[in-house]
Amino acid sequence: MELNLFLSAVGLSGTSLPAMTRWSMLECEFPATARLDHEPGSEVIELGIYETVDGETIPSAIVARFDRESGAVEFKDEEDEAFFDRFCETVRLMVIEPVTE
Known about the structure:
The chain is an alpha+beta fold. The chain has two helices and six strands.
């Protein structure tokens, strides 16, 4: 998947990966947050969803790879691609939080 399509799918714009993006949906029955982490210069992109049910946080996450030569984001397998689709659907319902770190 080309980087611009990846960024667009998660509601971001630009031509480079941000170091960190956080989303939240806190005012609902089951609060949830999501994160995208990418250390500048690294090929690793971490994507995670953290849902809280009955006071317990349930994390789910994957690691994708950014190929600098091709400019593409690659997933390990179909299961990770399906998680990415779920991640995109989830963050569309959330609000992006400012990152101050």
